[in-house]
Amino acid sequence: QVQLVESGGGLVQAGDSLRLSCAASGRTFSTDAMAWFRQAPGKEREFVAAMQWSGSSTYYAASVKGRFTVSRDNAKNTVYLQMVGLKPEDTAVYYCAIRRGTLLLAQKERYDFWGQGTQVTVSS
Fold first, then answer.
1. For residue 88, how many other CB atoms are within 10 A of its CB?
2. What are the φ/ψ torsions at residue 76 (nearest 5 degrees)?
């Protein structure tokens, strides 16, 4: 199995930018899909963005499209989530996840491995 570790969260003001990182230990495959989810207090865990480990396909939730960008560094086994124009409603614990398959799915049940999460708090 692979282990995923998120980092880069913090406390920022509305309109600020933040970049999250997710480092994977263990083997990753060209057929993997990696994704970001988030969970706010009292709410269900929701999909944010996903990308293929090999290829250029990406998929974003409507709430973040145009503000968030997912990218990767294959040599470092790391994926990133660049967040700009942060809003208070973006406040949540952000998780990275991986599934063994190329489909960019939004359902959390379809992902096989998860990180521990990193807290993002956006003040107004």
1. 11
2. -100, 0
